[in-house]
Amino acid sequence: MKVKKIAVFISGRGSNFKAIATEVNRGKINAVIDIVISDNPDAAGLRYAHEQEIEYAVFKKKKDQSRSEYFVEISEFLKRRKIDLIVLAGFMKVLSSNIIEEHRNRILNIHPALLPSFPGVHAQKQALEYGVKYSGCTVHFIDEGIDSGPIILQEVVQVFEDDTEDTLSARILEKEHTIYPNAVKLFCENRLIIEGRRVFIKQPQ
Ligand code: GRF
């Protein structure tokens, strides 16, 4: 089976990137992280990329550049590198339709809530304020909507009465660090089958 080439997109801390890189390094994921892309030159995750000798590139959106032009530039860059999978890991820009079309069903994202509840920003705060008793995280394919693509894996956490946004986020993040590498692994083993909105997981060969 061909080893997949991954591009990880980050904007900040990069803890999900680290969790995935750790599993790649342990040989658990049939992939190499070919490049880390950030829209933010100060993203803490870039330091980790540097330490691990993983190549990275910063794409800052120029003032005269439209969002779609910005993503065409990134998409061309990825095409030259023959990237198989884009992993969004705390990347704070909404992708434009051209890059989504170019990499249809080859872009994953993680969201810190049980989709379709609480899409968009501050998902943990939204969940807490709504009063749900359980929340969690979701790995899904990207489509043109906000956090609306086909769901691959979800994990549940309990919400406690004394939770703050920070404590709930930390409990969810721990689960993110397990399900995101697992979903990437499944993708890289060609085990994810999309039928409409549903994603089926094939048994290993
Ligand atoms: C995570 O909470 C993830 O669910 C959301 O952005 C955050 C990224 O955290 N999409 P990190 O940069 O991976 O630590």
Structural summary, described in words:
By secondary structure, the protein is of the alpha/beta class. The protein has helices at 15-25, 44-51, 67-80, 97-102, 123-130, 165-188, and strands at 4-10, 31-38, 56-58, 85-88, 107-111, 134-141, 151-158, 192-195, 198-201. The termini are close together. The mean pLDDT is 97. Bound molecules: 5-O-phosphono-beta-D-ribofuranosylamine (GRF).
Mean pLDDT: 97
Distance between the termini: 11 Å
Please give the largest β-sheet: 7 strands, mixed
Task: Give the amount of beta strand, in percent.
Answer: 15-25%
Number of DSSP-assigned strands: 9
Which strands sit side by side, in order, in the main sheet?
3-2-1-4-5-6-7
Instruction: State the helix count.
Output: 6
- Which CATH first-tier class of the largest domain would you pick? Alpha Beta
Which structural class do the helices and strands define? alpha/beta
If you compute it from the alpha carbons, what radius of gyration comes out, rounded to the nearest whole angstrom? 17 Å
Please tell me the total number of domains. Answer: 2
Low-confidence stretches: none
CATH superfamily of the largest domain: Formyl transferase, N-terminal domain
Short structural description:
This protein has six helices and nine strands.
Architecture blueprint of SSEs:
Elements: E1 4-10, H1 15-25, E2 31-38, H2 44-51, E3 56-58, H3 67-80, E4 85-88, H4 97-102, E5 107-111, H5 123-130, E6 134-141, E7 151-158, H6 165-188, E8 192-195, E9 198-201
Parallel strand pairs: 1-2, 1-4, 2-3, 4-5
Antiparallel strand pairs: 5-6, 6-7, 8-9
Helix pairs in contact: 1-6
The structure holds 5-O-phosphono-beta-D-ribofuranosylamine (GRF).
